[in-house]
Specification:
It is a single chain. The chain is 81% helix and 0% strand. The protein folds into two domains: 51 residues; 44 residues, no CATH class. The chain is an all-alpha fold. The termini are far apart.
Length: 100
């Protein structure tokens, strides 16, 4: 048998490289597309998270304020001006009640 010509070998190498590149490139593109979809999903999840979630301290402070307001409104013998002043400074409230 005779040896294959160098041109034939070069052509076969290019054909094999082209086939490998095409099949390998398709897999890479699928992986790239999947990663892009996952990144888009993560970005969407981050956008849907609440941004200004109150802290526990803030919630506690608001609950305390609501309780005070409920006491003011439900108390039958209240002086609105006195109670408003008492809300401004809790120490003043004790002094105001002592004077009354």
């Amino acid at each position: 048998m005779h040896d294959p010509s160098p041109i034939f070998i070069i052509v076969m190498v290019f054909v094999i490289l082209a086939i490998m590149r095409k099949s390998g490139g398709a897999g890479w593109r699928v992986g790239q597309r999947r990663m892009e979809e996952m990144m888009a999903e993560i970005r969407e999840q981050r956008r849907s998270l609440p941004r200004n979630v109150p802290t526990l301290d803030q919630v506690q402070m608001l609950e305390d304020r609501v309780r005070v307001l409920e006491r003011i409104v439900t108390d039958q013998n209240y002086s609105l001006a006195r109670d408003i002043e008492a809300l401004r400074d809790p120490r003043d409230a004790r002094h105001t009640e002592e004077k009354i």
